[in-house]
Amino acid sequence: MGTAIIGLHRVGYELRSYFRAPDAVFFTFLFPIVMLALFSVAFSSAPDIQAGPGVSVDYATYYLPGLVATGLLLSGTQALGVDIAGERSDGTLKRLGGTPLPVLSYFVGKIGMVLVTSVLQTAILLAVARLVFGVDLPTAGSRWWTFAWIMLLGIATSSVLGIAISALPREGRRATATIVPVVLVLQFISGVYLPFTQLPDWLQDVASAFPLRWMASGMRSVFLPSQFASAEPGGAWHLGWGALILAAWLVAGVVVCLLTFRWNRKDA
Fold first, then answer.
1. Strand (E) or helix (H) holding 34
2. Is residue 268 helix, strand or coil?
3. Which residues constitute the domain of residue 168?
């Protein structure tokens, strides 16, 4: 119980630190909201995207699912990766290692911060989509159930991958240059900005090995009409495969965290 209580206190500390960093707030918290506004305004006069006779959506509706998924990856993998690498470089982790703070409590604080910011970010994104751009949100309970498990699994996977990838940068100042390009490339090959099946087959295969492709297609199954499944590989959402691949990355990320996380780098 002591570890859990300390972890909950760490969540509050991490949230305060997060929202006091303007670059983190803009490039992780506000980024999906800004991108939705840009795409919606830029394509406001363009014809709707068709998925068959009489089935179409506007660009705000089309881009919303991918940006919801992107927000989870940014809040988890990118934000935690850069943050923890910086704490390791400036000596914060070394100082924490000299205190009674349990490693598990530290992780609870970080992952709790990702959970809170992801839920808040997604809520704002959906509110902007509905109230500002007139996006019709799902009404079926089954779709919201799909949304909930994809979101929770995506948050967990993105968080442990953020902790794992934080071991890559040798210095905190290089963390952004090391981690952000990886996250950016994944956005472009995972069906967030471009229709996934328009990519070359080999690039689809590469993207399908990573979590964001499945998070994005899962969210499309929630927010887009079912006819849009015809634009996915194999003409289906493949939610089962997505869950398995996300779970595999979650387990792999936990293993890497256990093997690599140290309060202080041995090569520092």
1. helix 31-42
2. coil
3. 2-44+54-260
